[in-house]
User: What shape does this take?
Amino acid sequence: MALTHFIKNLEFTHGKHAETSVITTLYGILFWNIIFDDSVVNVFVDRFQSSPLDMQTDLFYQNRKCSIDAKIDLLRNSPIDFICELYRESWNNYIGIECSLVNWSLFESLEEFLSLVRCFTGVQLANLSKYISENYRYCRSGGPDLIVWSTKTNKCQFVEVKGPGDHLSL
Assistant: This one.
């Protein structure tokens, strides 16, 4: 109901009711090569893993610090069209491959996904990626219920929906 309201009555053209799944999907697709870096020792025990064993620990960032920081610097200093090309390449290379961070069925197409990406700046994506890289275990749940965005304005909004008698948790 809330999603329909935002699209029919406000300036938004798209939306998803997916809580943190959108955020982790944004991160997972862009950082795929770093997440699945097989030069990190003792984090992959078989080829069917959907994430490295250190994903939910402080070691995830520490084990990949140089690669993550370089990617974050690239994002921070790149125009969104270049970043969209990075997403396009990763999407095309890995679509359908199991990854615990990525919900491939969340978006109807790559173009719909990129229409959301265009609502961010490189600095915003860099800051979000830095936080997730250092704190993934805290990013798996508790996010806002909805994300809505407009392809006309390239703006997005995260929305928490509460019904009667419901309240925000801290």
In short: Residues 2-38+54-159 form one domain. DSSP finds eight helices and three strands in the chain.
